[in-house]
Amino acid sequence: LRGSKSFTAALPGETERNGHGLAYKSVSVGHLEVAPLSPSRLSLGRASSTATSTVAPDQGRPRDYLVLAIFSCFCPVWPINIVALVFSIMSRNSGQQGDVDGARRLGRMARLLSIVSIVLGTIIIVLYISISVTGNVSS
């Protein structure tokens, strides 16, 4: 059996807030040194983008791959490259609003969809040219 890493501690101002009239609040060990987050940014799963941006401010603005997405729009795989362009624009907007994690995630998705579009478009163009050339040779 593994022991729990949570305990109860008396916190000032918490005497009547927990509904039981007790002056104790259950606290996890990992949350003792963390600054309080605003309720709108509170997350149970991943760290918020504000925590990530304060840890590594020297990384700069995340890439949105807009040029790659625009280039992929010249390939004949339009549903995929249009979605890549939309993800790229969403990544740029998220970066401008300060959501570094969201901008990075959307940028990676835009890059992936752009690369898939370029690869599939190149395959389609090569197949079309090869079929056109072989069709003209036999006639």
Give the end-to-end Cα distance, rounded to a whole number of Å.
79 Å
The parts where pLDDT drops under 50 for at least 5 residues are 14-18, 37-46, 48-58
Largest sheet: 2 strands, antiparallel
Helical fraction equals 40-55%
Strand content: 5-15%
- Mean pLDDT across all residues, rounded? 75
Please state the structural category: mainly alpha
Q: How large, in whole angstroms, is the Cα Rg?
A: 26 Å
* Element-by-element helix/strand order: EEHHHH
Give a count of the beta strands, DSSP E runs of length 2 or more.
2
Task: Walk across the major sheet and give the strand order.
Answer: 1-2
Q: Helical region count?
A: 4
Q: Based on CA inertia axes, which overall geometry fits? A: elongated
InterPro entries: CD225/Dispanin, CD225/Dispanin_fam
Protein name: TUSC5 protein
Keywords: Membrane, Transmembrane, Transmembrane helix
Subcellular location: Membrane
